[in-house]
Amino acid sequence: MAQPHVLGASGEPGPTDGSAGRLFRDHPSVMLFIDPSNGRIADANDAAARFYGWSRDELRSMRVGELNTADPATIRAEMARAVTGSRSVFAFRHRLAGGHTRDVEVHSGPIELEGRTLLHSVVVDVTERNDALAALQESEALASAIVANAPHGIAVTDLDGRMIRVNAALCDIVGRSETDLLGSHYFVMTHPDDRPATARARARLHRGELSVYEMRKRYVRGDGSVAHVQVASSLLRDGEGRPRFQLGLVEDVSARVLMEEALDRKMAQEAALSQFSRRAVGEREMDTLAQDAVSTVARMLDASAAVLWRASAGAGERTAIAYEGAAGAAATLTPIAAAEVPGRVRPWGVLEVLGDAGDELPDDELPDDQLRFLQSVVDVLGSAIGRRDVEDQLQQSQKLEAIGRLAGSVAHDMNNVLTTILGQAELLSQAVVDDDPLAPGLTQIHEAGQRGAAVTRRILAYSRSHSGRSEPVDVAELVTGLRPMLDALVGDSVEVVISASPGWVLINDRELEQAVLNLAVNACDAMPEGGRLTVEAGPLGPEPGGTIRLRVADTGLGMDPDTIERAPEAFFTTKDADHGTGLGLSMVEELVTSANGNLTIDSSPGAGTTVCLDLPRAKPAAGGSAVAAPAPTSGSSARILVVEDEPAVRDLVVRVLERAGHEVKSCPDGDSAWGLVNDGLARIDLLVTDSNMPGMTGPELASRLRERWDGLPVVLMSGHPDVASAATAYPERSLLAKPFTGEELLKVVAATWER
């Protein structure tokens, strides 16, 4: 190399060969001359000045440690290696004038100049190369991490189909180790039946007919089991577009396939069940329907045989009424017929699936969906077999509903009549003195009206057209109050014995009355030649807590165990169709259960029957009347609008209110009352209206008037069993049940007006 321009011993520029100096100065590469003895920069060319950002003079006044970010010891050691020639290429990070740094590759070697050994260093900026290399390494690491941690299986094969890379997910799917798979052909995993389709798809991919192929196939796991997979495969090409490898992405869809198969089975079972249900609706012949049932079960459950037994509850003997199975399997019917009845017994029979040996398959050998299908067929079959009975029972139920509606309607009319009787008797009583000859008759009229009111309440209770809220009820008072009705119900041939001690339960009193009457009717039917009916009520244990028992016993025919077991079933009856519906005891059990109680039956043939209703003890009802406010006097007059469609009741209410000093307007129905208001009726203080009227009802009228006069007090009168439901729907209004007396009317009006 020509001698460059270098510093002399004094630090000033020494003599320079002109052409050599220019070559050094103008060379495009970054060049430095460094004195290894002290690390000073002896000279730098123009390229170095441009690269580092310092002038040549500034660089010649610096030491190499001001450029190199390595520690001084490392710099000295590396310069020593360069001087000896043991190392000529170094990787450093150099600092530029702007403060930032660059990765550099330094090619350095010794050179003798003017009797001194200097290091001639060529500096190459490799920052971009290093960044690109780091990015490539990061990309390769990321790609490896993606393959290794991918949730789906990944396999890379050569063009011959040999696996050269697999990930852990694929090993898990096929149940084989990476060592087992690498180097083996992908056919080692593929199910034999799926290999031809796989080979055809692969061939099309390699011929360029497909850019990617997708298919669902099966893999054979290491333990011989089968995994269902979804495979997507494509070719990996080099920079010139030539195929080099084949990439396969594998998703384990075994759970999805099982779900799809289960869904297909379910849809097929539902279709079969739907067809069987349609046939069951129209089929009247039991034998045909039974054979259809076992054929459906055998086909859908892929069973070797199915059989329908006729059995009765508690019986151990069975008779086959329908059978389907392989030839010769019928020989197994004899020993099976002597076996115990399994758990899926119904009063009308049982449907079973039989195994290859003709014996019943245990439930744990049938999947849940097959058990559900079997039970569904059983349910449809049972419903169809009992269809005629159900139709008869429906007719009986419709009769009861009609009777209930009629009873409610009659009670409504009777309550209007009784309201008039009681009210007018009360007004007349106020007009006569105690020694008046008419006084005893008026008293008897009033008492007869009260008895009539009690009768209407019993009629409503027995009709079940009313379902009121549960309230504290004293069973002693309730049972004692039933004495007149029980005496009339049982007739002269049955003695009625009532024994009751005070005890409170939380229940609907009318429904409990109905329950006692139902039990009394059953008892009378069980004593056709007469006997004794005993009704007892009272606490079983000490307060607090404990149980209140209501006991109804007869000395009648009694029942066997099978009849006792079925007695509470709806529509079950031992009476003929003209004398029983089978609903009485089921209604009693429903009432007791809803009250968190318990019903027990003790009976035996010829020894009579005892039915016990055990109910939780409740706190007594609070004393006093809810509407016990004193009646307003003439000094506290109110403007009252009375709306009632029954003329006698309307006249009575108007007379009672006017005699109490109120200013009263009356209307026969809601529509005329609303018209009166629209014609300019001044604001009223209180509305007294019947609940059920033709056209606009009482609650509707009340709602309209309250929109016009906010906070208007309302009293709803009702002789219909909907009075309790009205109380629930309109809690801000007072309810007055018919029949009522004038005193009761004034108390409710006063309490409502002053509320």
Label this structure with key terms.
755 residues; 5-stranded antiparallel β-sheet; 42% helix; alpha+beta; single chain
Topology:
Layout: H1 18-26, E1 30-35, E2 40-44, H2 46-52, H3 56-60, H4 72-84, E3 89-95, E4 101-113, E5 116-125, H5 127-149, E6 153-157, E7 163-166, H6 168-174, H7 178-181, H8 195-206, E8 213-220, E9 226-237, E10 243-252, H9 254-282, H10 286-300, E11 305-310, E12 319-325, H11 333-337, E13 350-354, H12 368-385, H13 387-431, H14 439-463, E14 471-474, H15 475-481, H16 483-490, E15 494-500, E16 504-507, H17 509-525, E17 531-539, E18 547-554, H18 561-566, H19 584-594, E19 598-603, E20 609-616, E21 639-643, H20 647-659, E22 663-667, H21 670-678, E23 686-690, H22 698-708, E24 714-718, H23 723-729, E25 734-737, H24 742-753
Parallel strand pairs: 15-17, 21-22, 21-23, 23-24, 24-25
Antiparallel strand pairs: 1-2, 1-5, 3-4, 4-5, 6-7, 6-10, 8-9, 9-10, 11-12, 11-13, 14-16, 17-18, 18-20, 19-20
Helix pairs in contact: 9-10, 9-12, 10-12, 13-14, 13-20, 14-17, 17-19, 21-22
